[in-house]
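Example record

The entry below shows one chain as it appears in the dataset: sequence first, then structure tokens.
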Amino acid sequence: MHQLLSEDTVATKYWHQLPDGRIQCDLCPRFCKLHEEQRGLCFIRQNLNNQIVMTSYGRSSGFAVDPVEKKPLNHFYPGTPVFSFGTAGCNLACKFCQNWDISKSREMDALMSKAYPDDIAKAALETGCKSVAYTYNDPVIFHEYAIDTALACREVGLKSISVSAGYVCPEPREEFYKVMDAANIDLKAFTERFYHKITGSHLQPVLETLKYIKHETTVWLEITTLIIPGENDSEAELQEMTQWIVENLGPDVPLHFSAFHPDWKMMDKPPTPIETLLTARKIAIENGVRYAYVGNVHNKEADSTYCHHCGELIIGRDWYELSEWRLDNKGCCIACGTPCAGHFDAKPGDWGRKRVAVKF
């Protein structure tokens, strides 16, 4: 566990001092260069007494029990409840952020509940959860808090799930994913223009994170792309992205295409038509993605799982409710015996679509 400097502050190790006296944070590729008491773009990492500290340890924007499919993870113990939390702040500046009230908050004390890692592990067990998700904002910025919580969860048999944009440097990335069991990475688009103009970041570090998770860890990986009309929905971009995924990550990484709705600084775009999502899914499948889904819309057919060998419906989903279950106790299609990629219990969970707030 990291040592507390105060009630909610811990020292960090990913930084170095610059010749001009500023401190550079080396957690993510933003490389914020900070004067004394200045905060990085993420807001929760600060130059204090000539070192970078994290200022939200043990403080959360709230706790809730969600369905694991909401993360979204469709192939990681379907139907089970997941204990979810985040902090304030984010290291990206997405104009379309749908959690902007959390990720862009500058009023942490007004927002936050308090719980330390052991408290979270205990509460997750008491609420019947199989896993804990670090979500709502990006857990790479609360690196130390997330790692300590994941270690506390591991001690009591709970899984850990990271829901992240994957914008993190190699050394902290390695430390972080050593304690994670599953991850959903937001691949926000497949052009540098989009990443630079709309998120204030860069594409290549995200691609490197995806390859790292898939090839150098045992973490179960799924990907989400929020489809925004006129920004990342062209057929050419979807072709290029899905081809890259199959060539670099393989055919078994589930891909979720989610519907955009106007929010925060992007109120001028219309909601994503369901036809656009279905087209994206079709392109993905034609390019070899075995498990492609749509999200934020109601379409049972496109949100269900099919055997990639025989085409049999093997997991039916209606929003977050599971219906058909045609996997055997080894996670194989009962019609043809082909394994379905993922992590499955002998029987699915029955949490459904419930969301239960948790107070400490």
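Notes for this example: The first helix runs from residue 100 to 103. Residues 4-54 form one domain.
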